[in-house]
Amino acid sequence: MLSTLAQYINACIGRALECCYERVLRRKPVGIGIGSAAITLAISASMILIIALFGCYWEGWRYLDGVYFGFITLTTIGFGDFVPLHPSPNRDPEGYRWHVLMFTVLSILYFTIGLAIVSSVLLSIRNAMEERSLSGFQVLKEPEED
Fold it and tell me: Which residues of 57-72 are buried (b: 16+ CB within 10 A; e: fewer)?
C-alpha cells in the first residue's frame, strides 16, 4: 500500500513539474527526477517540522526534541525514548474518549501519509539516479531491450 501511494505521489509531482516546464517555462522538461526528489524531500521535512510543533504544543517538548521524534518516527527507527502521552485522562476527563479517538485516527492518517512520503523520497532519488540527463553521472551500461 505504501509503495503504491509513493508511486502515485511521485507520478503527481512529476506531472506537475512537466506541466510547469511546458506551460510556464515553455521548454522541454529535463531533470524531472531531481526536481521530484527535491520536492518530496521538502514535503517530508515539512511533515517533520509540523509534528515537532505539535510535540511542543501538546506534549511540552522542546522543539528540537519534536524534530528528533518526527524524524525517528517517520523513518521507522523508533527508539521509544519519546512517546506522545496526549491525550491523557488527567487533562480532560470529560472529553477523554473523544480525544483518544481523534488522536488515534489523525495519528494513523498522518503517519501513513508520512511513511508514503518517505517511500516517495527514496523512489524519487532512485528515479533521479536513473535519468540520463543527470550531470556528473555516466551511463556505464545501456539498458538491454527485450
Answer: ebeebeeebbbbbbbb
- Of 86, 78, 77, the C-alpha closest to 54 is 86
pLDDT of 8 > 60? The answer is: yes
Residues contacting 102, CB < 8 A, separation 6+: none
Q: Please report the pLDDT score of residue 138 as a whole number.
A: 60
- Residue 41's pLDDT band (cuts 50, 70, 90): very high
The verdict on pTM exceeding 0.90 is no
Which of 49, 45, 13 minimizes the C-alpha distance to 124?
13
Taking only Cα atoms into account, the Rg of the chain, rounded to an integer number of angstroms, comes to 20
CA-based max dimension of the chain: 66
Residue 39's pLDDT is 94
User: What's the distance, CA 36 to chain centroid?
Assistant: 12
| Cell numbers at 49, concatenated | 517540522
Return the closest-CA partner of residue 100 out of 87, 113, 90, 109.
Answer: 87
Q: What is the pLDDT of residue 105?
A: 93
Q: Which amino acid is at 79?
A: F
With 0-12 / 13-18 / 19 or more C-beta atoms within 10 angstroms meaning exposed / middle / buried, residue 48 is buried
